[in-house]
């Protein structure tokens, strides 16, 4: 595995790795490395079904939703890889970078396994079966003319591993590989997905596999039971990033954004782009994501084109070429399938069509080749590993396709727009981006109306994407489209529009604990506007039936606590602390601890430590420890170190986890002692992981 670890590309990933490991801690010192900020992101399990939590709860007649576990992304992937796990996330949320980080760390781990055994003096042995050869397979390069095995072989050979006939099959059967299969939604055809599904089932019992896909992406879940979903950045993480990336300007940018920070910064890629735009755009915040992408690409375009010679005829037409490339790739070869890679010859043919439009039939293939080279040198496309052409991120491709859609929008009939674009999943992101660029209210509302006729959720998404001044009318279209109060509140959450707040807050005033009320609370959390906090706190204080569950859902106050955590406003801290200390329901206390961790206010450290030490429920204690790690306050370190000597192994394990998230080097000595002397496997494993996190600081 030395060839993988020593490869320059992976070294760069390690050095400049930003934004995609997982949520969690506020770091004591935040460094910009390789142009980015080191952040941890979180992943959470996707519940399979509503079921009884435990036998003792069943005996008491208490049914709950399945427990949602939260981990750092790498922790979650490692935990479930053996039985196959699917990581879902929105565009730009960090799925692919997390896979690349996992590749590197697992390669290093394979090399260091023997050292860890020696370090643990026989007590902290690393199970032999956990040491695998990690292989990253980018599914965008899958070719229907070759098998998945051939794609895996190519990846192995690229890093210097020599394969004889039959080696790969033997390794798959013996479980010697860890397969990281990135981009299920980027597979080029339905046949490719069938082949992948068949391959997975063939080696399900022998070879651990990790898959990534977009939420709402083509390809489905491949029959994988265990799913993780990327969690958005916490409010504190977004703020830390902005202030570190823009010293001297960050506070002003945050003040200008207000509650809109979540709209632009919930995923790592967009947060970085936002800082770039703000710093380069006279400290102005774009109106929405569509105008945001337009501004970003124009700024990026201008910066890059400065290096293009003035005499180069491609210079003024680069944006048009990119739009045509992106649109043709989105159209693809099948109505359901977009292309994320194309061959050089296909790219040259598309570019030539633009050349001919500009210069007539004298436009030559030679010119197209030169223009393509300009794009590869100076713009947002690049060569893939198979010499194919791709945009540097799928979101960039979707934005340029949105601009091309916008150009054609006046010529589309309602039927064409509905059945050739709104009707297909692959156009969701381009359509949402285009919605923010529509400059006429009638056209914007037409788009919302047609989207609602095709799919309610798509219509809600588009309604929240158009210019803010038209959103009240769009929200009315959404609420008029459905009669069910439950569905209506859910769709209002999908809009993520502040124009939906009044309807949702009104729903909280009905104290019958109906499902629609619960859905309204969740929707307020998704919108994330601090103006909802008084209404949420009032609902908590006047809840007429605090101990009643609705159709298997947890307590209402538990749901509200989660929403307050998502909003992440410090004004809710006092109430959450009161709930943590005094509420009789363990789930409500656990939720309060989680919300305090998301808010990240250091004033909660003392009470969280008390809950960690004294709460009667282990899940509350674990949630409190997790919150302490997220807040990242070094003042908690000494108390957590003392807990490493606790008689209860669950206390020791949680304390080690929290110390790793805080990242204070003063904990290293005590954690090494735990690694060498603790007699509990899980505690030692927590110590190893904590030492690894501190070592990365």
Would you write up a description of this structure?
The chain is α/β, with parallel strands linked by helices and 697 residues long. Among the domains are: 229 residues, P-loop containing nucleotide triphosphate hydrolases (Rossmann fold); 152 residues, no CATH class; 65 residues, Alpha Horseshoe (Leucine-rich Repeat Variant), CATH 1.25.10.10. Helices cover 57% and strands 7% of the residues. It has 35 helices and 13 strands. The protein is globular. The N terminus is likely disordered.
- Indicate the CATH class of the domain at 2-230: Alpha Beta
**At the fourth CATH level, what is the homologous superfamily of the domain at 2-230?**
P-loop containing nucleotide triphosphate hydrolases
Q: Globular, elongated, flat, extended or rod-shaped: what is the shape? A: globular
Beginning-to-end CA distance, first to last residue: 24 Å
Helix content: 55-70%
User: C-alpha Rg, in Å?
Assistant: 26 Å
Question: Which descriptors would you attach to this protein?
Answer:
697 residues; Rossmann fold; seven-stranded mixed sheet; two-stranded antiparallel sheet; disordered N terminus
Topology summary:
Elements: H1 2-6, H2 8-16, E1 32-33, E2 36-37, E3 42-45, E4 50-52, H3 55-59, E5 63-65, E6 70-72, H4 73-80, E7 85-89, H5 95-119, E8 133-138, H6 148-158, H7 167-174, E9 177-182, H8 190-202, E10 209-214, E11 226-230, H9 235-245, H10 250-257, H11 261-265, H12 268-280, H13 289-305, H14 318-331, H15 344-359, H16 365-378, E12 381-383, E13 389-391, H17 394-408, H18 414-422, H19 428-435, H20 441-454, H21 456-463, H22 471-481, H23 485-495, H24 501-507, H25 515-527, H26 533-541, H27 556-567, H28 573-582, H29 586-599, H30 605-614, H31 618-631, H32 637-643, H33 649-662, H34 668-677, H35 681-696
Parallel strand pairs: 7-10, 7-11, 8-9, 9-10
Antiparallel strand pairs: 1-2, 3-6, 3-11, 4-5, 12-13
Helix pairs in contact: 2-5, 9-10, 12-13, 13-19, 14-15, 14-17, 15-16, 17-19, 18-20, 19-21, 20-21, 20-22, 21-22, 21-23, 22-23, 23-25, 24-25, 25-27, 26-27, 27-29, 28-29, 29-31, 30-31, 31-33, 32-33, 33-35, 34-35
């Amino acid at each position: 595995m030395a060839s993988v670890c020593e490869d320059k590309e992976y070294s760069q990933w390690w050095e400049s790795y930003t934004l995609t490991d997982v949520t969690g801690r506020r770091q004591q010192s935040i460094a910009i490395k390789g142009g980015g900020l080191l952040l941890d992101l979180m992943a959470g399990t996707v519940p399979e079904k509503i079921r009884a939590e435990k036998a003792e709860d069943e005996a008491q007649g208490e049914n709950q939703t399945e427990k949602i576990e939260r981990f750092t992304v790498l922790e979650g992937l490692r935990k479930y890889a053996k039985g196959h796990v699917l990581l879902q996330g929105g565009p730009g949320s960090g799925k692919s970078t997390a896979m690349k980080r996992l590749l590197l760390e697992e390669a290093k781990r394979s090399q260091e396994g023997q050292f860890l055994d020696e370090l643990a003096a026989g007590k902290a042995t690393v199970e032999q079966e956990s040491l695998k050869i990690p292989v990253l397979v980018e599914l965008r390069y899958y070719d229907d003319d070759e098998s998945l095995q051939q794609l895996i072989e190519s990846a192995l050979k690229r890093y210097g591993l020599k394969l004889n006939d039959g080696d790969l099959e033997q390794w798959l059967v013996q479980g010697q590989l860890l397969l990281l299969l990135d981009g299920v939604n980027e597979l080029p055809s339905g046949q490719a997905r069938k082949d992948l599904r068949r391959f997975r089932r063939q080696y399900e019992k022998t070879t651990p596999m990790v898959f990534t896909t977009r939420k709402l992406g083509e390809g489905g879940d491949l029959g994988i039971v265990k799913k993780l979903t990327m969690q958005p950045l916490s409010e504190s993480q977004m703020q830390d990033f902005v202030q570190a990336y823009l010293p001297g300007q960050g506070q002003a940018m945050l003040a200008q954004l207000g509650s809109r920070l979540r709209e632009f910064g919930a995923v790592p890629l967009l947060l970085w782009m936002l800082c770039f735009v703000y710093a380069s755009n006279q400290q102005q915040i774009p109106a929405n994501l569509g105008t945001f992408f337009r501004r970003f690409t124009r700024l990026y375009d201008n910066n890059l084109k400065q290096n293009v010679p003035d005499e180069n005829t491609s210079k003024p037409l680069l944006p048009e070429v990119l739009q045509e490339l992106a649109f043709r790739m989105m159209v693809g070869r099948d109505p359901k399938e977009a292309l994320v890679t194309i061959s050089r010859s296909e790219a040259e043919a598309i570019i030539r069509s633009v050349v001919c439009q500009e210069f007539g039939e004298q436009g030559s293939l030679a010119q197209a080749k030169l223009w393509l080279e300009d794009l590869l040198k100076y713009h947002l496309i690049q060569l893939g590993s198979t010499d194919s052409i791709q945009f540097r991120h799928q979101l960039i491709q979707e934005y340029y396709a949105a601009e091309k859609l916008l150009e054609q929008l006046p010529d589309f009939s309602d039927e064409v727009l509905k059945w050739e674009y709104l009707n297909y999943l692959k156009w969701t992101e381009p359509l949402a981006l285009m919605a923010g660029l529509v400059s006429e209210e009638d056209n914007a509302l037409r788009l919302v109306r047609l989207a609602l006729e095709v799919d309610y959720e798509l219509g809600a998404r588009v309604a929240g994407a158009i210019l803010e001044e038209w959103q009240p009318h769009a929200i009315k279209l959404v609420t008029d489209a459905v009669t069910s109060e439950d569905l209506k509140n859910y769709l209002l959450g999908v809009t993520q529009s502040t124009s939906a707040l009044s309807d949702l807050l009104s729903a909280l005033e009905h104290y019958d604990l109906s499902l629609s009320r619960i859905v309204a609370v969740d929707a307020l959390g998704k919108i994330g506007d601090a103006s909802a906090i008084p209404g949420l706190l009032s609902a908590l204080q006047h809840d007429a039936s605090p101990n009643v569950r609705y159709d298997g859902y947890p307590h209402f106050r538990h749901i509200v606590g989660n929403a307050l955590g998502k909003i992440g406003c410090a004004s809710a801290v006092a109430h959450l602390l009161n709930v943590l200390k005094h509420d009789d329901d363990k789930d409500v206390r656990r939720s309060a601890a989680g919300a305090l961790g998301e808010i990240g206010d250091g004033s909660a450290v003392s009470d969280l430590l008390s809950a960690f030490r004294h709460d009667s429920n282990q899940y509350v204690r674990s949630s409190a420890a997790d919150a302490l790690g997220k807040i990242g306050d070094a003042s908690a370190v000494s108390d957590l170190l003392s807990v490493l000597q606790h008689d209860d192994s669950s206390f020791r394990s949680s304390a080690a986890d929290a110390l790793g998230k805080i990242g204070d080097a003063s904990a290293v000595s005590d954690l090494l002692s735990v690694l060498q002397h603790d007699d509990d496997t899980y505690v030692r494993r927590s110590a190893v992981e904590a030492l690894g996190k501190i070592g990365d600081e």
